[in-house]
Amino acid sequence: MNEQAIKDLLYKLADDQLILGHRNSEWTGFGPILEEDIAFSSMAQDKIGHSLAFYTLLQELGEADPDTVAFTRNANQFHNSQLVELPNGEYDFSLIRHFLYDNAEIIRFEMLAQSSYEPITKVATKLKGEVKYHVLHANTWIKNLGTSTEEAILRLQSSLNEALPYALGMFEKSKYEQELIDAGVYAGEEAVKVEWLNRITAVIEKTDLKLPDLATIEPKFGGRYGEHTEHLQPLLDEMAEVFKIDPTAEW
Amino acid sequence: MYGGGNVFEATKFDDVQVEDPVKLAEFEARIARGEKIEPTDWMPELYRKQLIRMIEQHAHSEIIGALPEGTWITRAPGFRRKMAQMAKVQDEVGHAQLLYSAAETLGKSREQMLTDLINGKSKYSNVFNYPAFTWADSNIISWLIDAGAIVNQMANAKGSYGPYSRALERICAEEAFHLKYGHDAVVHMATGTPKQREMIQAALNRWWPPIMTFFGPSDKMSTHTETLMRWKVKMASNDECRQQFLDMYVPKIWELGLTVPDPKLKKNMETGQWEYTEPDWDEFKRVINGDGPCNAERLAVRRTAEERGAWVRRALLNPKAKYVKPLA
Predict the structure, then answer these.
(1) Which among B90, B309, B323 has CB closest to A41?
(2) Which of B238, B84, B98 is nearest to B156 (CA)?
(3) CB proximity A237 to B under 8 Å
(4) Is the dihedral of CA A146, A148, A153, A156 positive or negative?
(5) Do A151 and B314 touch (CB under 8 A)?
(6) How many C-beta neighbours within 10 Å does residue A219 have?
(7) Could you count the other beta carbons within 10 Å of the beta carbon of residue B233?
(8) Residue A39's closest chain B neighbor by CA?
(9) Which residues, 6+ apart, have CB-to-CB distance to A48 below 8 Å?
């Protein structure tokens, strides 16, 4: 197996979880109700824990230690999708992003739990149980708010329309895509996308929301290759603010 | 996390005198026997009122207290601290949830309590009106403010109101972890690079005066709280808590080679009491009444969060909304 292909996949997984975990944690103290404050904070902890697990696998493949990798790279060295780096916006946007993201992430985790690459299989098997709850949380809230007031439905619909191009950007193919599929690491991004569409459609059909025709949407690609929106670098600067005072210090 | 320094209304005996003397005697006898009072039990109006006030202030302190430390979640250095800081602050918000529920058993809704917080009608722990300038300030809060909170809450957990005392037991168990986390973070700073040492000493210097006021005004100045003590609403005097805190933590601070910015601070070996520079109670009063460095900012943040989240609460209350049961 080409080690570069595995590293590319691991960076993508780890960076997505780290950046969305960071965004989720920004809800701590600001949630619309205490229970949601706590829920986003809890998912943030899981996601950052997952990113650490993947960075640890990368370290075993010869990359730098997780703190160095997470806290010292610049935006153009990150492989996350642009979806996760967008600011939280209002709760409707954060909820829609969480729904679109986690319904894809669970599929990747399910596939990776069956992977031919054993180190990743172990981690994915362990962590997919946690992502299952994130999906349950997102779907419950989408169904609940998506059938409630006109105000809530309009807000969610507008956030859904806004987030979809970025959500499609999650499925940007790696340059090692075919290699990963052939080696049985996972079934690839196209397969994830097909299953994702089935799952989100099933939830949206139970609400008053409408899923726009995806064929008419131009996906926001680039994230997997280090091209990001203007929002990522400030996030990384903030994240590293204390760490960079002295990267050799024990904090 | 929360200190004492509750803003009790001065006890007016007229308030008690309107109560049925037989029921009142029975109520007081139950408390004297160490029984817990439960939500549906008879209780004097004054008891109900003071408990709502106290639990509500405690709950507010938890969500407002999440703000100074919360700002350091996104900047915590390294995975270990980042994950712990998130978990710690999440706990505090969880405490608020527990406490609002406990206060609701006495008849005031969470929404009403939050409205009173934003309007400035109800208070929260005064220390959170001070800023957390650096990562080190956040460490000092995690260690010493949580330590103070434990001293106060361990005492109050023995109080007479069942729901509050049970909530406090759970809260203290979590706070004990916060204390370990805070201490560990401070130890790393105090034994780290010269820059880290300088940061942690500066943070301690900034936080010491607010810490000294954390348990509320000196007993000499406190309003009459005899009835509240007898009813086991207030369990220890402000000065008793302050002495206990100094006894437990000053030696630990000195052990780390840090200094406390109070030249008068020492333990009087004859009396067994700590002597210290009297905190500036005028400043304390000024800050608690709204004129501190961060009062306006803290309430503005809370108000914004409430306003931005209002549509979610309206949607949840909409009868059209189907509650979707999570199928875990």
Answers:
(1) B90
(2) B238
(3) no
(4) negative
(5) yes
(6) 18
(7) 23
(8) B90
(9) A17, A18, A21, A22, A25, B79, B82, B83, B86
pLDDT, one tens digit per residue, over B190-224 is: 999 999 999 999 999 999 999 999 999 998 886 66
pLDDT tens profile A47-94: 999 999 999 999 999 999 999 999 999 999 999 999 999 999 999 999
- B273 pairs with which residues across the strands? B268
Tell me the shortest Cα–Cα distance from A39 to chain B, in angstroms.
9
Q: Measured between beta carbons, which residues in chain A are less than 8 angstroms from residue B74?
A: 22, 25-26, 235, 238-239
Average pLDDT over residues B66-72: 94
- Closest among A58, A90, A237, A60 to A163, alpha carbons compared: A90
Chain B hits for A52, CB-CB cut-off 8 Å, are 79, 83
Which amino acid, one-letter code, is at B81? Answer: R
> Would an 8 Å CB–CB cutoff place A29 in contact with chain B?
yes
Predicted-complex ipTM score: 0.95
Lowest mean pLDDT among B2-11, B18-27, B136-145: B2-11
Among partner residues A52, A155, A250, which is closest to B192 by beta-carbon distance? A250
For A164-215, the pLDDT digits (tens) are 999 999 999 999 999 999 999 999 999 999 999 999 999 999 999 999 999 9
Contact (CB<8Å) B89/A41: yes
d(CA A101, CA A55) in angstroms, rounded, equals 20
Distance from CA of B19 to the nearest CA of A (A): 37
Distance CA A39, CA A21 (A): 12
Exposure of B13 by Cβ count < 10 A (0-12 exposed, 13-18 middle, 19+ buried)?
exposed
Contacts of A75 (CB under 8 A, 6+ apart): A226, A228, A232, A233, A236
Rounded Cα–Cα distance for residues B117 and B97 (Å): 15
A38: chain B residues, CB-CB within 8 Å = 90, 93-94, 97
Tens digits of residue pLDDT in B272-299? 999 999 999 999 999 998 899 999 999 9
Q: How far is CA B291 from CA A145, A185, B174, B287, in A?
A: 40, 61, 32, 5
The answer, for A34 touching chain B at a CB cutoff of 8 Å, is: yes
Distance from CA of B135 to the nearest CA of A (A): 7
CB A145 within 8 A of CB A156: yes
Mean pLDDT, chain B, whole residue set: 92
pTM of the model: 0.94
What is chain A's mean pLDDT, rounded? 97
Pick B90's closest partner by Cβ from A38, A48, A139.
Answer: A38
